[in-house]
Design a protein that fits this description.
- The modification N6-(pyridoxal phosphate)lysine is found at residue 287.
- It comes from Phytopseudomonas punonensis.
- One of its GO terms (molecular function) is carboxy-lyase activity.
- Keywords: Decarboxylase, Lyase, Pyridoxal phosphate.
- This protein is α/β, with parallel strands linked by helices and 449 residues long.
- The protein folds into two domains: 3-68; 89-344, Type I PLP-dependent aspartate aminotransferase-like (Major domain) (Aspartate Aminotransferase, domain 2, 3-Layer(aba) Sandwich), CATH 3.40.640.
- The chain has helices at residues 3-21, 32-36, 52-63, 85-97, 108-125, 139-157, 162-165, 183-191, 239-249, 303-310, 337-372, 393-406, 433-447, and strands spanning 132-136, 174-178, 200-202, 222-227, 252-256, 280-284, 296-300, 376-377, 385-389, 412-416, 419-425.
- Helix 9 (239-249) links the parallel strand 4 (222-227) and strand 5 (252-256).
- The chain is globular.
- The chain starts with a helix and ends with a helix.
- The relative contact order is 0.14.
């Protein structure tokens, strides 16, 4: 390696390590001056390129102060975990490898590690061990893959060749979703051409779960989408009641489990009893598994169905049906499943269980202390989500803003049952009990100010 290239990479590593060393002391959200300094990037495309050392200097000196410290211990927004050191180290090596991880021909090592990671994911989540697992960019992209497989399969059962004849004239596929379905599920449905006015909304109970007694009628042309971890309450649809009804009707069941599906790897696995009966699932690694962003999974019981829907074989690029290019939206792709493999190899079954158990315990303690301090805790806190409201909508908004402005913590707003609330998500491996106490003390102080 040329000396200049080596020196640049060493400097990048030094800066990255220094950034990580500062996580506990950094503001969780950047201040106004750091954000204002970003205008320094607003320049025309340079006629003559800058030295690589200057590019790196600008990124660190101007960019690092304006980051959100979601990789730290006191970020409680959007169910975002920090990155486990083993996963971060794996990402560094994967970047050096620079593999085209579409198939075995592009990268034998990526192909092997992602196949192993697929098996481990199914084992950890208690899903059918022959399921296909595509490692995609996000729950949105992976939902697109799974729902594409679902529609194609349901149409094939009606004698319709989707690949050749498309949708014009095809039997209509009905979609039944929860009234609280996540926006990414709706986005995937919209992109796939399912009009929002055509969706059938299943009524929910007080916890945000589909009410089995009021489930719309299902048939062999129905796609039923359930939730493992409702985004506000963390609740689970009643899979053991709902999925057998769907299977008896010939419907396809997809489960949106972006974060909640990982409860299956914990001592609270019973919360998701019956989820293994579904046809497909999506989940993220960058939420509760604590891998870097850009890590998600499309999981399909019928691997052939996913492979047929996502197939991208060409005369110059043939591959096995379980190659990642035939299980995901991407043809050219990075080996994003390696970070999943590294996290699971590092944690093991026991470490994964302990991490998730700790977050559930911390969320329960947080909820109890806030409730004792006069807050309304709006959910049962069975998982890692704490849904909170103060005495009035105005006070709720004021506390949220003050907490965000403090730089000590960060969490976001939401709307629950038509009124403002805020949502506290405990999902970072870096979050200690002491960090939870800091959050509690801040919120109690703000409420009494």
């Amino acid at each position: 390696m040329p000396t200049e290239e080596r020196a640049l990479l060493v400097d990048a590593d030094r800066r990255a390590i220094a950034y990580n060393d500062s996580l506990a002391q950094r503001r969780v959200y950047p201040n106004e001056s750091a954000i204002a300094a970003l205008t320094n990037f607003d320049t025309p495309l340079p006629e003559t390129g800058q030295a690589a050392t200057q590019v790196l200097h600008s990124l660190d000196e101007l960019g690092s102060p304006a980051t959100v410290t979601s990789n730290g211990p006191r970020y409680f927004g959007f169910v975002i975990g920090a990155t486990l050191p083993a996963a971060a180290a794996a990402e560094r090596l994967v970047l050096a490898w620079d593999q085209c991880a579409s198939s075995f021909d592009g990268s034998p090592i990526a192909d092997k590690l992602e196949k192993v990671a697929a098996c481990w994911v199914c084992e950890a989540l208690g899903l059918p061990n022959k399921s296909a697992v595509g490692f995609g960019t996000s729950a949105t992209a992976c939902t697109l893959a799974c729902l594409s497989a679902a529609r194609r399969t349901l149409l094939a059962r009606q004698g319709w060749d989707f690949d050749q004849d498309g949708l014009i004239g095809a039997p209509e596929i009905r979609v039944v979703i929860s009234e609280t379905a996540h926006i990414t599920v709706k986005k995937a449905l919209r992109v796939l051409g399912f009009g929002m006015r055509r969706l059938q909304l299943a009524p929910i109970d007080e916890h945000g779960r589909i009410d089995p007694a009021r489930l719309p009628k299902l048939d062999e042309r129905t796609l039923l989408i359930l939730q493992a971890g409702e985004v506000n309450t963390g609740e689970f649809d009643r899979f053991a009641e709902l999925i057998p009804k769907a299977r008896a009707a010939g419907a396809w069941v997809h489960v949106d489990g972006a974060f909640g599906l990982w409860a299956r790897a914990s001592s609270s696995a019973g919360l998701a009893d019956g989820v293994e009966l579904a046809d497909s699932w999506t989940t993220d690694g960058h939420k509760w598994l604590n891998t870097p962003y850009d890590s998600a999974m499309a999981i399909c019981r019928d691997g052939d169905a996913l492979a047929a829907a996502m197939n991208s074989d060409a005369a110059y690029a043939m591959a096995s049906k379980d190659s990642q290019k035939n299980l995901t939206l991407e043809f050219s792709r990075r080996a994003r499943g390696v970070a999943i493999w590294a996290a699971l190899a590092n944690l093991g079954r026991a470490g994964l269980r302990d991490m998730i158990d700790q977050h559930i315990r911390q969320a329960g303690h947080l909820a109890a202390e806030l409730r004792n301090g006069g807050y309304q805790v709006l959910n049962r806190v069975r998982l890692n989500q704490v849904l909170v409201r103060a005495d009035s909508d105005e006070q709720t908004a004021a506390i949220l803003k003050a907490a965000q402005d403090s730089g000590e913590v960060w969490f976001g707003a939401t709307i629950w049952q038509g009124r403002p609330a805020f949502r506290l998500s405990v999902s970072s491996w870096r979050t200690t009990d002491a960090d939870i106490e800091v959050l509690i003390a801040l919120l109690l102080r703000l409420k009494n100010t």
